[in-house]
Amino acid sequence: MGSKERIHRLKENTKVNIINAAHEIVKEEGWQALSMRKIAEKIEYTAPMIYEYYANKEGILLELTKKGYLLLGEKMKEARDKYDTPEEQLEAMWLAYWNFAFEEKEYYQLMFGVQVNCCMIEDLLPIESTPYGIATKPIMQLMGIDDPEDDRVCTKYYTYWSIVHGLVSINIVRKGASDEINRQILKDAIIGITRSLKS
Amino acid sequence: MGSKERIHRLKENTKVNIINAAHEIVKEEGWQALSMRKIAEKIEYTAPMIYEYYANKEGILLELTKKGYLLLGEKMKEARDKYDTPEEQLEAMWLAYWNFAFEEKEYYQLMFGVQVNCCMIEDLLPIESTPYGIATKPIMQLMGIDDPEDDRVCTKYYTYWSIVHGLVSINIVRKGASDEINRQILKDAIIGITRSLKS
DNA sequence: TAATTTTGTCTAACGGTGTTAAATTATTTA
DNA sequence: TAAATAATTTAACACCGTTAGACAAAATTA
Lengths: 199, 199
Description:
By secondary structure, the first copy, chain A, is mostly helical. Helix content of chain A is 72%, strand content 0%. The first copy, chain A, is built from nine helices and no strands. In chain A, helix 7 (131-143) packs across helix 8 (151-173) and helix 8 runs antiparallel to helix 9. Chain A binds a DNA duplex through helix 3.
């Protein structure tokens, strides 16, 4: 026979076609533009057909998430395998992670829930009312710098913000991490950065 | 007359009613459940009425974002004013930021684009393929620990991830930061954490 | 006070979304 | 060739943001 398998292969093929079409649309127009009807149009079918292959839109998103994780994993392994010491491996891997986030921006957004809606709040609010305006003052004080726009101040602010925001994001999307560990990370990181301000 | 002002006050009142209704819906059902029709229902009007007060849905979201920033600013100032030294001020402010993120989770999600869709990829993927599985190995090596579930390993992994993910998120939502500064922060932070593994 | 203008509000509709049930067409099996 | 099965589409539902036009209430003017 073998025709059973040919058909199975064909079905598997349209299944990846759906995923590829979805990925293309997202790369071209962003996540909020992705719709079942658009995917259908791209693979030259009608929308309900997709439900023969995926339970619903979320199923497609889940599949893409999985692909994203696998791709990220590969990139990190590649980076790791270029070095021998754990120190170098760690640095290379996190750099690979960083590069993945921007080279495969759409995957990253899906995997870790980074939206793009918010924008330029500074134009709507006086700087003294923003976290930046508030937090940079003691940073400047500690560093002995007067200009709030000094790159060194800016860098340190973003270092603080990154770790806090990163930790917050991770905890919001994947609720369940131990509070104890979070406090530990938060405190360690803040103290570490603060210490680095004075040298 | 004064009636002009009374009417103006009334209009201003329904304007905040709209915002409050929106905020309530989001607190009850999450961002993805927020719709113009639901807001209208809550304030006992019809949906098109809202457009007399806000240009569109995004206008409402923007107003809420602004409110969120102001609230966060206040909390940080409150925390700061409890201390005198910049060191203590910084720690208190970032802790206030942290608390705000969870006490006013909806605001935080809107302000910094943290979605909630993605979840528990570990159940779908073998751990060796995940960033966690890959990155913890050299961490364990450096720390001289064998158990991959040891809390100390976990803590360090999340410290790395937080700073990288935070920095990535910030750069994706607010594109325009200098690459030079980013590399600097990234490298500094990674090296700093790696150094802390060995002590 | 009566007529007119302005304001506030609603109804109805458009084009879009995810999703489902039923009808239809194409393919395989007997 | 006829019957059964599979693949695909059409039509519809309930929702969404948004707009235009109708309508009634209020304020203003004559």
